[in-house]
Amino acid sequence: MAIRVLARPTSHRLIASTCKPPSSFPSPKPHYFSTNPLASSERQENSKLVSHSDVFQRYGFPKSQIHDFLSKNRFLLNSSTSDIEKSLKILLSLKPSHEFLVSVVSSCPSVLEFEFLKDWEMSISKMGISNVSSSMVFNVLEVSRKFSLGPETVYRCIQRLKGLGFSDSTVSRVLEEFPMVIVMDENELRERIEFLVGIGIDRKHIDRIFNFFPGILVCGVRNKLKPLFKEFEELGFTVDVARREILRDPCVLGLELGELSRCLELLKNLKCRVPINEKIYRDGAFRAGIEVKRRIDCLCRYGLIRRDAFKVLWKEPRAIMYEIKDIEKKIEFLVHRMKFDVLWLVDVPEYLGVNFDKQIVPRHNVIEYLRSKGGLGNEVGLKGVIKLSRQRFYNLYVKPYPECEKMFGRFVGDVEVKNQHPVGMWKLFKPKRYPESKEDHESIRRRRYLLPGMIILMKDFTIGLLRNSITQLKLKVSRSFVVLFLKVGFLGIKEELRFFASQVRL
Fold this sequence. Notes:
Blueprint: H1 10-18, H2 37-58, H3 63-72, H4 81-94, H5 98-107, H6 114-117, H7 134-147, H8 151-163, H9 168-177, H10 186-198, H11 206-212, H12 221-234, H13 239-248, H14 259-268, H15 274-280, H16 285-301, H17 306-315, H18 318-321, H19 324-337, H20 344-347, H21 356-373, H22 382-386, H23 390-398, H24 405-408, H25 438-471, H26 479-488, H27 494-503
């Protein structure tokens, strides 16, 4: 059986073995998943962001703010989700309130560090303070995180304050308003207490002063309190007056040097009516200066600089007599309802002096109604609303529009104006008429004829007196005097006066 064998030529086999593929067509390589470390770290960050967001959302954080919060605080991605959740649980145990938790974490995200918070678990409740406020816990944690303090340091501070005689409410108030007391020396606290005792304040009032004004801890004795009392003495106030005002309002100790002098200078330069001035000074000059200072601070809180605030009170002294809450209500209405800037008070300070319910609100309602209906030709500013008299405002904006009379509240046709007195009261003041007798008629007739005779006697006496004065004394009378005498015509004796004038040597 024959077998056929096919053989390929050698030359072709050699070419095929030595041939290489062209460089422009590289051989395909298999593709696998990327092993780039940057891409993997991004995926890990995204997964942490998602897991952290879920944790924050479960603890009451607004969903719309979580992503922005985590993007601003990237250091939280270095912590695991479990540590974040443990930190949130510890914070919630310190003060069981979701509002407190959100405010603390939003204001100071660094407190979420688990290594810092694990020492604080259930520590606030063991420090011996009964009434713990949210702001106190927040401020204590913030200062402790800033200075890397533990709960034992805060505990020692609380015991130190109690040892000085402060109550639990005062300790809580001090830690809330001035948490830096944690790092203060006890000698500094004693120095302030001894100063208050030195000016005559009883120790039983010290606790109330620190409770009402914890800012005294900021005031140094040598650089603030002693110079302040020296200023009081220079203004003419005794230590007894200053002590009485401190017991009445401990915030007096927070006055800046020269502040009371500036307030008293404003009061001296006020130009107001006597009743207003008496009401301002009814409790003494010291209290009047303090009231001015409180209203200056109120105006400055709403954006006025101190110079403009003093100018407003100088132009409108009635604002010194009003309560702070009334001034705040008027400014809130001015800014939020009337949409005017607070700087308008510098141009129209009378706004603070008018009645809120009887003038400001009704006039604003009328102007707003007319503006919505297109009844205002020109825009009405604050001057047009406040400075017009009540009658003129009524004639301009209320009387042409009857529908505005009800919201204006006065000068309305259906409102009865009550008289101050009964209708027939005027008859009682009419003088009584008595019948005339013959004696009355005779007396009137005598007086009627007696008067001309008296005039003639006076005429003769005057003529004789002038003749003697001119002929015997030889008076030299000026022309203006003679002309004046001629114009007077004393008692109708013009002819005699002309005769005398011709005898005078001009």
